[in-house]
Structure formats: C-alpha cells, structure tokens
Amino acid sequence: MQDKGNLILAVKRLEGIPLSPHQREFLEEIRERLYSDKLFIAVVGEFKRGKSSLINAMLGTAILPTGVLPLTNIVTLIEHGPVPSLEVTFRDRPPLEAPVDQLPEFVAEAGNPENRKKVRTVRLRYPSPFLESGVVLVDTPGFESLHETQTEEARAYLPRIDIGLFLLSADSPLSAKEMALLDELAGNVSQCLVLLNKTDFLTAPECQAMVEYVKNRIAERHPALAGSVFPVSARDALLAAREKKAGSRNVGGIGAVLSVIEALVREKGARIQAKSNAMRLLSILRAVKVRLRVEADSLRQPIQVLEDRIARFTRGLEGLEVQRSEAEILVDREIEKIIQDLDAEMDRLRQELPPAIIGDLRQGSKPFAGETLSDFSARMASLAEERLKTRFEERLPAIEAKLESAYLAVVEKHRARLTAILEELLRLGSEVFSLDLQSWELPEEFSSERRFFYLEGETRPFFDLEGAAVGFVERLLPAGKARERALGRILERVPERVDANCGRVRFDLLRRLKDSAARFQGRLSRLVTEAAQGIREAASQALAARSTAEADVSERERSLDRFVRDLEAVESELEAFLRDKD
C-alpha cells in the first residue's frame, strides 16, 4: 500500500460506510491532514509540568499564558503565519478572529472557567522559523487537574497527535500515573520524546542522576523510548531568548530537542504522518466494524428472536445496573469509615504536635540568647515555621500510607464484584448478539497529587505563624525577659497553627480520597453505559430494519455484508502498511 495516495483512497472508501457524526468528523480531519502535509507535535503531561512554558521556549517568545495556577483548559494549535493572529472555533457559533493578546480570555481557566464560552479549539498563527516546515505545535490541557473537563479534553486529543512530547518535571519525576499516561500516549502516536523540565533547580550531577533514573524507569515498559529522554529548562531557555544572548537556542537544552524534531520532520516526517493517519483510520474502522456486525447478525434473525434477544439483554442490563448501584453505595459507606479514621488521625496530630514543636522551639532558642530582640524574634519566627513544617512532614507519609492502604482495601474488596458486572455485560453482549468483545480494567490507584504545599511564587508560606512582631512592651523589658516574652508569643500561636494546618491537610487528603473513589466509580459507570448504548443502538436499528419489507431487509443485509467486507479489506491493507512502517 503506497503512502498518501492509498491512505486518501482508504478515506474515500470509509466515506461510503455508515459512520457516527463524531467518526465522520474525525475522518474529515484525517483527510485534511493528508492533503495539508502538516505534522502535529503535542506537548502532553500532567498539570503544572510547564507545557505552555516549554512551547514558549521552543518558539523563543512568551506567546502562551503561563502562571502559578493551571492555565490551559483548551487545546491550542500554534502554526506558521506571516503575522501573529488568533482564530477561535466554538461548539455553538461561527469562528472568531481576535487579537493575540486576548488568547488568555479563551484558553485560561481565569478567562474561560470550565470552558463556559464553549470553545472547541484555538488556532494561533505566528511567524516562527521552526514552524515553517509545516509543524503545528499543540498545547494540551494538563492531565489530573482539579477540572475533570481538562483531562477529558487532553485525552480526547491523544489520537490526533503525530509526535508526542511527554513532559515530566524534575521536582516530581515519573509517578505511577504518569507512567500510565505515557503508556496511553505511546499507544496513540508513532513517535515520542520524553522531556524532563525544571532541571535548572538541579546541579549537573543531580540532573544526570535524574535523567538516568527516568531512562531506567521508562526502559522497563518502553525500551525504545529510553534513548529519547532530554533534560530541559524552559525557564532558562526563554530567559536567554528574551535577552537575545548569543547561542540562546542551546540554553536550557531546548536546542537539542529542536534539532531532534527538525531531523525527524526532515527525514521521517512523511512516514510519521502516514503511519499516524493509518492508525487513526484503523481506530475508526474497528469501532464501526463491531457495530455493523451486531446489526448484520441481528438482521439474520426472525423478528421474534431478535425482540427476545433485545428484551433479554435489557433485563440483564437492568439487573446489572441495580448491582452496580448497590456496589457504589457499599463503597461510599466504607469511604465514610475511612474518613472517620482520618479525622481521628488529625485529632492525634492536634494533641501531639504542639508539645513537640514547643519543645523544639525552646531548645532551638538557646543558641540565639545573645542576639538583639529584633534578630531573636525573626530567627524564632523562621524556626517556628520550619519546625511546624518538619513535624507535619514527619507524620504525613504514615498517614497517607494508611489512608491509601485503607482505600485500596475497599477497592480490592469490591473490585471482583464490580469487574463481574462488566464481565457479565460482555458475556450478555457476546451471547445475545454473537459479539467478540474485549474486557476492561478498572482503575485502582490512590491519587498521589498533594496540593497543600507552597504555591510557586507565593510570598507568604502556608506553614507560618503570621510573624512575631516585636511589641512596645518587649522593648522596655530587660533583654532576657524581652526575648522570653517574644518567644512566649510565638509559642502561644503553635496550637492554633497546628489546628489550621490539620484542617488544610485533612481537606487535601479528603479531596484525594474522594477523587480516587469518583474515578473508580465513574469509570465503571461509563464503561457499562457506553458498551450497553452501543449494543442497544445497533440491535434497535436492526429491529427497525427487520420490521420493514423482507426485500428491504435483504438489501440492508447485503449492504452490511458488503460494508464489513470492505472494512476488512481496508483493515488488512492498513495493518500491512503499519507493519511495513515499523
């Protein structure tokens, strides 16, 4: 099978197959890509890994909004244009041309919270030499953001990527969830690079050790990617570009990444694009083939048999829905028990931490006994902040581990029952409609994203004692008494600050617990709903066709058989094409 010409032919052959509106839209997008010769390179990663900053560094200008909070909530395409321009497409109205400086109003959470403006995509044109070869850079929303729609938007775009730039952060490299995301990305793209950002916080030996660690972890699952790990600092690269330093392209490791991408585009661009589009066509084809087989098999059955099958499937599905609801109620009850245990842990912290911190501060004040009152107060306020944080950090890992263990025990307890619900649905679909359906897996991990640390750029730390002002009275007392009184003011605040921080820690752990449970239950609900809906739609369509004249039924049956044969022929050609490209 030749590359572009025969892929375009495959698109035309699929156009004659009954497709859903979403599939037809995706097919049209594939056709446009085949004719445009553009290569879509997307930056993918969890939120706050620096995706927008990386693209800014690659372009040498701060064109995308960045900040201390998760910003990107809309897929943003950056392609070459003679002058900077912005085009916004919406889900419910015509496209809009807007000034480039209005970009945050459409893509940032602050300007477009939860995508209330119903933006579909944003296309930014910019006169960058890097984009002249037909490269389109794609800034995707972050995975695992608090806003679930952002994760959904990012995941939906994965099949549309030609080259993936998987972005990690040196301050929290390669969690289990990031490895799962890399698995998903690698399964959707024909080429992938792994970038380790924020390496400017590391020494050279630390950076090398971190790169080796990431390479070794990736090699366990994706040996071919282990040699494509690049340390970068988007911050340093963009700063050098702004200052127009000589050799700025090589600052922050960005030059090495750009060189690899340029070589890929130059030497393998056409092959990568062809392989990616073949993979997309296969994904559409296989989904359609299952649906057509359900309808074709149903048409061959007498109306009564078909009605009995649909009724049987519906009864089985209703029973499964009851079981699913009961299982979710039981999970919710056990989650409440875990919350009670968490509250008990927080009460223990409130009782045990203040005496320990006060003891630390009394002992720690001794070396500063000879200092001025002002210096003494400042040192003790700083020490109080440090000891409060340290004492919490000493206790939190055990509390987190206990919480995670309890959650996983609940999931494991109900996992078999919930998986059985899915397997029963598969069995019903296979038995009633003669389908060969694949099984699914339910997520069981506990959310590991902690969100109660300092925010980047925050001037007032979270674990603080709101300072320790040196009062007028202290200034009138003898030095020793004044220092003792100043220390006493700080010590009085310790229980209050411990209590406040316990509340914040509890809120974060509770959010993570509920997020994990919601993902588990939501995944189950979506799997059951989507599978059942697809099977019922196909069967109902067959029943409607079966109820018409026999000649019409025969014609529809012949059409379906022809469609399936065409799909299988195209499938064989695409599979052979992909084997040839590997």
CATH architecture of the largest domain, by name, is 3-Layer(aba) Sandwich
Strand pairing plus helix content: what structural class? alpha/beta
User: How many separate domains?
Assistant: 2
Average pLDDT, rounded to a whole number, is 78
- Given as residue ranges, the uncertain stretches (5+ residues, pLDDT < 50) are 438-474
What is the radius of gyration?
29 Å
Number of helices: 14
Task: Kindly state the number of beta strands.
Answer: 9
Instruction: Please list the strands of the largest sheet in the order they lie side by side.
Output: 4-3-5-2-6-1-7-8-9
- End-to-end separation: 14 Å
Estimated helix fraction: 55-70%
Question: CATH homologous superfamily of the largest domain, by name?
Answer: P-loop containing nucleotide triphosphate hydrolases
Order of helices and strands: HHEHEEEHEEHEHEHEHHHHHHH
Q: What coarse outline follows from CA principal-axis ratios?
A: globular
Note the beta-strand portion: 5-15%
CATH class category label of the largest domain: Alpha Beta
Briefly note the CATH topology name of the largest domain.
Rossmann fold
Largest sheet: 9 strands, mixed
